[in-house]
Specification:
Blueprint (H helix, E strand, L loop, with lengths): L34 E9 L32 H24 L4 E5 L1 H5 L2 H9 L3 E4 L12 H19 L5 E2 L8 H8 L4 E2 L9 E5 L2 E5 L20 H20 L4 E7 L1 H4 L2 H15 L4 E3 L2 H11 L6
Parallel strand pairs: 1-2, 1-8, 1-9, 2-3, 4-5
Antiparallel strand pairs: 6-7
Helix pairs in contact: 4-5, 6-8
Protein name: Chitooligosaccharide deacetylase
Family: Belongs to the polysaccharide deacetylase family.
InterPro entries: Glyco_hydro/deAcase_b/a-brl, NODB_dom
Length: 312
Amino acid sequence: MNGNPFHPATSGYPRDLRGYGRDRPDPAWPGGAALAVQFVLNYEEGGEHSVLHGDAHAESFLAEHFTGPPRAGRHASIEGIFEYGSRVGFWRLWDLFTARAVPVTVFGVTMALARHPEAVAAMREADWEIASHGLRWIDHSTLAEADERRYLTDTMALHRTVCGAGPEGWYLGRASPNSLRLLTELTQPLYLSDFYNDELPYWRVIGEAPQLVLPYTLDANDMRFLTAPGFGNGEDFARYLIDSFDVLLAEGLRGSPGLMSIGLHPRITGRPGRLAGLARFLDHVAKHPQVWLARRDQVARHWRARFPYRAP
């Protein structure tokens, strides 16, 4: 170590900047697949910030137009944009995925799911995984620890009522410093996804318990239609997804199989011009038999079986 005060073996630095490095594990995906591809549908419509939901202001994040600072009172445009996702966009995406028998994981905001039982029934009919995106689509850093504990307990209870079983996977999206520790104390999650630091799953000790992390993505994600710089049209989206897929597939065929995650929202990719880009990507994927299409819970179970946790 030659007196290096920053060496990871001695510094006590809490972040892991090394990861798998050059020794990436072989996932041995089912069927000898060279790449696993996983689609996430974030269902948030009806759980966003709104005075109707007890908030002081309307939603101002990931909306279809520039909204400026949060507005007190109701915001008819924002409400309509979110309603489009549940009324139209969800069904357009459901038709696309079910027609092609593509498995999907839903990151479901529990309040939003509870307001739309027909959508939940359709998710279950299609055998989609319904993971938890929290009780509300809000920033958890605003919650005191005791309040967040109650909030997560209420999330699990309502999820069981609405979906018929509790969530196995979790993605809060805007987690607090306490969120993941509280989850490990309150439940035994199959996986956690509030991480963007890798592509492959890995184990991480949170609190005193080892937890499986399935990292998520903010780049292969339709949220970039509403952020700058971002996607300007469906072709931009398709091109980025296809390029990402081609690089990862080539790596897999050379002996280093990976995992590609794609993040979607009904109110965003449910728009016709954007859905066209997603459809082109699905057409491209369908040309390659070396791919395993899977839900996140399927990926997690496969990883746990192949790479059970071992203490360092």
